[in-house]
Specification:
Layout (H helix, E strand, L loop, with lengths): L14 H7 L9 E8 L5 E3 L7 E4 H13 L4 E6 L17 H11 L5 E6 L12 E3 L2 E3 L1 H17 L3 E4 L6 H11 L8 E6 L6 H6 L20 H13 L3 E5 L5 H10 L4 E5 L1 H12 L5 H15 L3 E4 L2 H9 L1
Amino acid sequence: MSFPIDRPRRLRRTEALRGVVRETRLSTAGFIYPMFVCPGSGARKEVSSMPGVYQQSADKLVEECREVEQLGIPGIILFGLPATKDAQGTSSLVADGVVPKAIEGVRKAKLKLLVITDVCLCEYTDHGHCGVIEHDEVVNDATLGILAQQALTHARAGADVVAPSDMMDGRVAAIRGKLDEHKFENIPIMSYAAKYCSGFYGPFREAAQSAPQFGDRRSYQMDPGNGREALKEVAQDLGEGADIVLVKPALPYLDIIRMVRDRFDVPVAAYNVSGEYSMVKAAAQKNWIEEKRVVLEILTGIQRAGAGIVLTYHAKDAARWLKA
């Protein structure tokens, strides 16, 4: 068909028409809200580089979780800020640690929220890396048992899903084996399968107090120039027992989300990360952009690329706007 028979603008003429033919319909159904839990009680401190995001104790976190539930957001993902750190990240393994306490609080409040937990060492190690250090290098295999035990600790506390974000080779298999061994075979694993070494993580490292004390994470997180490697990583994690695969960050890697969605018939998640969030907030504060419009456009784009699950700090704002 050609002009003037084919006139695509006919279906753009009114909001009613645009709504009827819209291909991607953004909703809260796939939103996951990231939260940072710290020790103590009555603690709530805003992250300076992430307006509206807080480091908070379990009791305050539960208060915010009530709001999350009321907004129709189905789940949260928890990141822990421990009272103490060491080279092995042992504080991530204790049954009364910050993340288990937060899970317990959510359960006692009888909130109908999916509770996902980050499984990694960077928040718990004094060197800030995601694995054990030997001879100034992050070593892979010595890290796996600690990650598996951390996942088990979270499962015992009542986590619905565990989400390894460390990018160690073989960690999904190690976690799956440990969970199954202890009768948690029904706990799903959401693997950060394609996690890139990105400049967009800066604000998160303030929020999670997880900046590496030396070097960087290029030896274990993916190189930004690689696309086909992401498919290899996803295939490997699925082969080891992952149930959901995640691409991180989202905006610079929409092509990767689409590649994963087209290749694999599994749930695909994407993390709309801290730097992406903070750039929008900073520009909105200066009235350079219309925040609501930009946020909803970003989230629609991530979903349109193929992510059915979106981890985003915008979740609460977006939920309010979508309800309006």
